[in-house]
Amino acid sequence: AQSVTQPDIHITVSEGASLELRCNYSYGATPYLFWYVQSPGQGLQLLLKYFSGDTLVQGIKGFEAEFKRSQSSFNLRKPSVHWSDAAEYFCAVGATGGGNKLTFGTGTQLKVEL
Amino acid sequence: IAGITQAPTSQILAAGRRMTLRCTQDMRHNAMYWYRQDLGLGLRLIHYSNTAGTTGKGEVPDGYSVSRANTDDFPLTLASAVPSQTSVYFCASSPQGGTRNEQFFGPGTRLTVL
Questions:
Q1: How many CB atoms neighbour CB B24 within 10 A?
Q2: Across the strands, what pairs with A87?
Q3: Among B residues 21-60, those touching chain A with beta carbons less than 8 Å apart
Q4: Which stretches in chain B have pLDDT values below 70?
Q5: CA A18, CA B38: separation in Å to the nearest integer?
Q6: Pairing of strands B42-49, B56-57
Q7: How far is A65 from B64, CA to CA, in rounded Å?
Q8: Do A98 and B98 touch (CB under 8 A)?
Q9: Which of A20, B36, B45, B74 has CA 20 to 30 A from B108's CA?
């Protein structure tokens, strides 16, 4: 069974600073990987996804993520954070062999200081 | 506006009562999902449906039932609510079933069972 670990529950960064949110997964092969963002009181919105190919994927709102097979990681990055990026971020893993189960991490709450 | 609507937005319910959470999408997506979100646990899949007329159990199906009479609607029923079902419930849809497809989320229903 797949699993996802987001080791940082809360992260605080200053506006304009760079950001990296960590995600580690456990799965027997290369899974489908996703990052979602949840603004307060809202549902989740997809930021980016990785299925195969280029290990650096670009998403919306200036985010990118890099798949590293050797580290079983899929960390989310942004070069310069904006105050509007304050939200909760979820990494998710999907099995490639069929089925419907997306396994979500427990989330990282991002606070942006002005 | 295309998307997913959920009703009610929030509800306080006495234990033992029956409750149906409503979900409607107008994107003509084949697959729909119900998740619950609990602090420190992320999102967990309750039930899913790959197409109208079919449903399947997710990670935490006990105490919940669903039906999929048509493409647009996917209600979630708690037959006899218990306090452990206090949570935020999200409905989602995707063009097809399977973990490769982006899931689109509704705004959520906050349910409190006393």
A1: 18
A2: A110
A3: 31, 33, 40-45, 48, 50, 56, 58-59
A4: 1-2
A5: 29
A6: antiparallel
A7: 36
A8: yes
A9: A20
The reply to whether omega before B8 is within 30° of 0 (cis) is yes
Inter-chain contact A95–B99, Cβ cutoff 8 Å? Answer: yes
Mean pLDDT of A92-98: 79
* B4 interaction partners in chain A (CB closer than 8 Å): 43
Which residues make Cβ contacts (< 8 Å) with residue A70, sequence separation at least 6?
none
Inspect the interface and report whether the beta carbons of B4 and A100 lie closer than 8 Å.
no
Side-chain-side CA neighbours of A23 within 13 Å: the count stands at 28
- Report yes or no: B87 and B39 within 8 Å, Cβ to Cβ: no
pLDDT of residue B57: 93
Tell me which residue in A4, A45, A94 faces B100 most closely, judged by beta carbons.
A94
* Token pair in block for residue A70: 């050797």
Q: Does pLDDT of A30 surpass 90? A: no
Res. A97 pLDDT band, cuts 50 70 90: low
> What region does B61 belong to: left with phi over 0, alpha with psi -120 to 50, or beta?
alpha
Beta-carbon contacts of A109 under 8 Å, excluding residues fewer than 6 positions away, are: A9, A10, A11, A88
Selecting from B50, B107, B108 the residue whose C-beta is nearest the C-beta of A100 gives B50
Residue B23: strand, helix, or coil: strand
The per-residue pLDDT for range A44-91, each reduced to its tens digit, is 999 999 988 889 999 999 999 999 999 999 999 999 999 999 999 999
